[in-house]
Design goal:
Length: about 80
Amino acid sequence: MEKDNKLVPWTKNTKEVRILLENNGFKPLAFFQGRKFLKPMITTWANKDKTWVKNEYSTFDLPKNITGLSFKMLDAEEFMLEIKK
């Protein structure tokens, strides 16, 4: 089984989280705001060298099997700590 820290973090799509993301340089994708949950986009997650200018996130509705996502939903502070790693 994969370790949880190798999986993509996710949280609820709340105004608080979107403000935290924008304040930390993430570009909002307004046309996806109607979805319930939020995660960093794959391109952002893969940007370990921080060579790309814009960070982005995407939103989604929880599928029946959440392959690739961390096992538990994070609160806003935990989410921000994870995506800053």
